[in-house]
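Summary of Year 1 activities. Much of the first year was spent building the evaluation harness for sequence design. The harness presents a backbone, in tokenized form, and records the residue chosen at every position. We chose the following record to illustrate the format because it has been used consistently in internal testing since the harness was completed.
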């Protein structure tokens, strides 16, 4: 764990992109942090995910924001398993899924994502926000640690106009926890490549399992939410700005402590073996829906990889 002043950055370089930077803030507390946080910065990863699909611009923004927010939420976990963020609604974008797996108890994460949308309905909207795009529906967060464990899922309505507001409502409604979230996605002005970022603050209970007070004249939670709000989309997405320098700019008077970064990468779990097992479980008449020019063709919704199979493989099942 490190307490960073300006002089510490030059001697301890870290990757700027495709990382989760955990941190915490003393925020006036003498013993232990008052606030925990995570900053996720995505560069080549989000570009790789988006270019595999011919998404309209507004869908790409939602995918980028969802990947960054999913990474930030998953960054709190310490287990081997899969974390899933899913938003489903009755709007032009009917489904967004972010799937994040970690094989090493939260030290590294592999991300994948996809969206379903109606192109004609999208063209009818002018400068839509996330609520316009997704409509009425729900946000679900799922944690699956594999066999012999209980699968957890929290589900709430989509409340608010942005993904940040969706997430904040989730924590208030499902977790009874105060959380502040900022998320952004867009193209780099020089390269045109997609980038995304998300930062999140959460209250930390003290030794008596009480949250930091919110009714004092100098409320540390409100103060740090105001500091968080001084950040800009440009800064969050800046490929030349060290994530730790950004955090220092926001919280240098709040007892900032940064922890080791966690690596992010794009990774899909599809494989010929897995798809074969699924297809073998289908009734033979349903396999006809997958026939293309005499071959059984399956396209992975996440990575857009195409798999071709000889129909005779399933005749023998």
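For this record, the design step produced the sequence shown next.
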């Amino acid at each position: 764990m490190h307490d960073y002043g300006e002089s510490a950055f030059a001697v301890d370089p870290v990757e700027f992109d495709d990382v989760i930077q955990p941190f915490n803030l003393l925020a006036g507390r003498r013993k232990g942090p008052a606030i925990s946080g995570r900053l996720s910065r995505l560069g080549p990863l989000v570009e790789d995910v988006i270019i595999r699909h011919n998404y309209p611009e507004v869908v790409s923004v939602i995918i980028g924001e969802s990947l960054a927010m999913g990474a930030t939420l998953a960054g709190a976990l310490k287990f081997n398993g899969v974390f899933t963020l899913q938003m489903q609604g009755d709007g032009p974008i009917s489904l967004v899924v972010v799937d994040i797996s970690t094989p090493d108890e939260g030290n590294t994460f592999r991300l994948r994502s996809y969206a379903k949308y109606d192109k004609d309905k999208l063209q009818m909207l002018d400068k839509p926000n996330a609520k316009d795009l997704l409509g009425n529906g729900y946000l679900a967060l799922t944690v699956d640690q594999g066999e012999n464990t209980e699968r957890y899922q929290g589900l709430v309505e989509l409340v608010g106009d942005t993904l940040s507001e969706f997430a904040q409502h989730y924590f208030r409604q499902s977790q009874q926890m105060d959380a502040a979230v900022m998320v952004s996605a867009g193209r780099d002005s020089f390269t045109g490549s997609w980038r995304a970022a998300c930062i999140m603050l959460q209250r930390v209970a003290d030794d008596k399992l009480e949250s930091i007070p919110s009714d004092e004249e100098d409320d540390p939670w409100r103060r740090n939410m105001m500091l968080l709000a001084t950040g800009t989309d440009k800064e969050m997405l800046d490929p030349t700005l060290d994530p730790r320098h950004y955090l220092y700019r926001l919280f240098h008077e709040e007892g900032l402590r940064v922890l080791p970064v966690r690596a992010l990468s794009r990774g899909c779990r599809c494989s010929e073996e897995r798809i074969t097992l699924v297809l073998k479980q289908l009734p033979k008449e349903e396999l006809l829906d997958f026939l293309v020019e005499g071959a059984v063709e399956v396209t992975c919704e996440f990575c857009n990889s195409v798999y071709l199979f000889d129909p005779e493989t399933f005749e023998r099942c």
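The radius of gyration is 21 Å. Quantitative recovery figures across the full test set are reported in Table 2.
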